[in-house]
């Protein structure tokens, strides 16, 4: 934990606490950006970075010691906190930067409110491989472990497949709990994933279930699945953030569409995730901090402090320019985000209520171990039960409507 002093004053107000997901070099770069946000008020900023973000935040809320600002990637979780009156609505001009699909307005008691703003985004519809590797018959790397949230690399697969097979409209219905888990489009996405990964040995399955999405660790840190011993594989389906484990290693990146048995008209629809800042404190300085972090100047500071492999990515939208790409991989990702995308759709599991998202994670792990159709039918039945129950529970609460549109249809 590091206290950062942006300026001097005769008084010493309490530090503003920012809780976020970034550790290691990412955390260091964000801390450095905070340090440079000199507003002349004498406020200090304490950054707490953790990989167990949800657990840490829930514990702090239960102890009535929430952070002033928290950065989360789950619209489902953020919606729950807003529903419980644990978030403060954003003020202008921050709200103007909370563009769809990453931070839609919520209807609260008949009023449209905005509760979070994206600080960075990542493109998820990507496939990674080593330069020179043939791509006609890929052998897939899969690592599904991730501490308390194991399974999300598998949900990313299913989400991306469904988006490219059924399109943004059906994807949105499913992500926002308006489509049954037994729907044929949903079933096909699961069975397509099983077919793409068919032929794995029992040892390979267990290795994937227990290996981190970062791959194995070496003297210099994570090695990435493409470079990990025991993974005889040629291609990896993973988000743009994974570039930090492959920096300078002759790795190429390309859109995932052609690998997923999708339809041509959905080729340039991409799945994205976002790290979004929300205010948990009634201290006006917390609102001011989020305003500065989400500004073009705040983005420039952050990028300037970060190594190329962990530089935050931003789409060129609402007049907020993206910076010059640092290398060929980032250049390709930047082009997909800002030039080629016909639609950008938020990560479906991160839109779902936490109970449904967690059940989705568990179901993916079980299905990966046993992809038999009978087992799949049982798992989807369980997920449908959770969906219906969560929807009924939501209807019992005060007037509050979560987002219904999570895809930004670019170019009209």
UniProtKB/TrEMBL annotation:
Region annotation (Disordered) maps to 208-229
Specify the domain of life of the species encoding this protein.
Answer: Bacteria
Q: List the protein's name.
A: Alpha-glucoside ABC transporter substrate-binding protein
